[in-house]
């Protein structure tokens, strides 16, 4: 990899931004210069990175001069405002929001699944939704051997999916409840501590929320399977960090369970966790702070000979967001896909 890469993190003070910083250091990413960008409210604050203090700057149309890669994690409205400006300035933007995921000319990438999609980028690459990434890493090895016909997935999503303030709110609510106080909800619409509720994103006319439709549409795009049948139920649960998912997969014909275990155990980005004797399978506590998607409890669906069931847990902030973005950046460097990539971007 080149040692001359200038990187900017847009949304550097958020939960994902902080994780991006940790991963850049942990993975020895080839940095020349690092620029930290955020809203004017956060400008002037200082963040320690590898023994030196970096001052957070307010993002502006001059922020991206000389920047090679922008890791954007500041929300969809911010990305819509700045991503094309950054790309026109010469950067490749890896965007963690949903702003561009559905655009036909914007690649949606999970490096373990569709790295080839990076070759067609025009200056912006979308990082998929956390639940989509985690499920994709777990099931794509099976899809490669025998195409999946239908997916039924239920998610159990942690507070981290709504950001650092939501995680803190969950902690405060838990303390209040234990102290006999009425919990107050500001970030979430309802108390999350000792509670759960269907995902609070907007509902469509069919009764599916935005989060559920992200799983449907993004999985189809990443797998290059536009006709893949998918239905999802997404639920917020009182877990601080790491999402869990129960997945039912339907194939055209039976899929051998032992073969499925072998494929997942050997798959990049996945780790098989199964101790049937002790009823020990993936848990959010074990997935927190770890890179792999933990997969287990793989079994034959007793209601259909062509279906498999599995359970997975993955760190929402790490592989579900920051790690996947860093891996995309590493892919761009490995394939030499930075130079001139933004020449067709228009604002």
Automatic annotation (TrEMBL):
Belongs to the aspartate-semialdehyde dehydrogenase family. NADP(+) binds at residues 13-16, 41-42, 160-161, 316. Its EC number is 1.2.1.11. CDD domains: ASADH_C_bac_euk_like, VcASADH2_like_N. It catalyses: L-aspartate 4-semialdehyde + phosphate + NADP(+) = 4-phospho-L-aspartate + NADPH + H(+). Residues 6-121 form the Semialdehyde dehydrogenase NAD-binding domain. The active site is at 130 (acyl-thioester intermediate), 243 (proton acceptor). One of its GO terms (biological process) is 'de novo' L-methionine biosynthetic process. SMART domains: Semialdhyde_dh (SM00859). Pfam families: Semialdhyde_dh (PF01118), Semialdhyde_dhC (PF02774). Homodimer. It comes from Waterburya agarophytonicola KI4. It comes from the Bacteria. Phosphate binds at residue 101. HAMAP family: ASADH. Keywords: Amino-acid biosynthesis, Diaminopimelate biosynthesis, Lysine biosynthesis, Methionine biosynthesis, NADP, Oxidoreductase, Threonine biosynthesis. Catalyzes the NADPH-dependent formation of L-aspartate-semialdehyde (L-ASA) by the reductive dephosphorylation of L-aspartyl-4-phosphate. InterPro entries: Asp_semialdehyde_DH, Asp_semialdehyde_DH_beta, NAD(P)-bd_dom_sf, Semialdehyde_DH_NAD-bd, Semialdhyde_DH_dimer_dom. Pathway: Amino-acid biosynthesis; L-methionine biosynthesis via de novo pathway; L-homoserine from L-aspartate: step 2/3; Amino-acid biosynthesis; L-threonine biosynthesis; L-threonine from L-aspartate: step 2/5; Amino-acid biosynthesis; L-lysine biosynthesis via DAP pathway; (S)-tetrahydrodipicolinate from L-aspartate: step 2/4. One of its GO terms (molecular function) is protein dimerization activity. NCBIfam families: asd_B, PRK14874.1. This is Aspartate-semialdehyde dehydrogenase. Substrate binds at residues 157, 210, 236. The keyword Transmembrane does not apply.
């Amino acid at each position: 990899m080149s040692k001359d890469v200038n990187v900017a993190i847009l949304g550097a003070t958020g939960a994902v931004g902080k994780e991006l910083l940790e991963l850049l250091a942990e993975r020895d990413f080839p940095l020349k210069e690092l620029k930290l960008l955020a809203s004017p409210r956060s400008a002037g604050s200082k963040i320690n990175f590898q023994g030196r203090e970096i001052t957070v700057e307010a993002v502006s149309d001059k922020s991206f001069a000389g920047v090679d890669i922008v890791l954007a994690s500041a929300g969809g409205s911010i990305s819509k405002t700045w991503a094309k400006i950054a790309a026109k300035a010469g950067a490749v933007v890896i965007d963690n929001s949903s702003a561009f995921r559905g655009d036909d000319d914007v690649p949606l990438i999970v490096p373990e699944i569709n790295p080839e999609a990076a070759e067609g980028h025009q200056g912006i690459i979308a990082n998929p939704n956390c639940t989509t990434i985690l499920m994709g890493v777990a099931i794509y090895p099976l899809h490669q051997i025998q195409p999946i016909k239908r997916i039924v997935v239920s998610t159990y999503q942690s507070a981290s999916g709504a950001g650092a303030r939501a995680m803190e709110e969950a902690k405060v609510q838990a303390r209040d409840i234990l102290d006999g106080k009425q919990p107050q909800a500001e970030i979430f619409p309802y108390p999350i501590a000792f509670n759960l509720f269907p995902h609070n994103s907007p509902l469509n006319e069919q009764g599916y929320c935005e989060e559920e439709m992200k799983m449907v549409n993004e999985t189809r795009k990443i797998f290059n399977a536009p006709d893949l049948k998918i239905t999802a139920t997404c639920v917020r649960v009182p877990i601080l960090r790491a999402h869990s998912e129960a997945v039912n997969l339907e194939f055209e014909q039976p899929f051998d369970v032992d073969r499925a275990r072998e494929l997942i155990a050997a798959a990049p980005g996945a780790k098989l966790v199964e101790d049937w004797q002790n009823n020990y399978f993936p848990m959010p506590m074990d997935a927190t702070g770890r890179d792999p998607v933990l997969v287990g409890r793989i079994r034959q669906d007793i209601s259909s000979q062509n279906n498999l069931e599995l359970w997975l847990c993955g760190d929402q902030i790490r592989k579900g967001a920051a790690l996947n973005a860093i891996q995309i950046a590493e892919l761009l460097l490995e394939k030499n896909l930075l130079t001139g990539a933004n020449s067709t971007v228009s604002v």
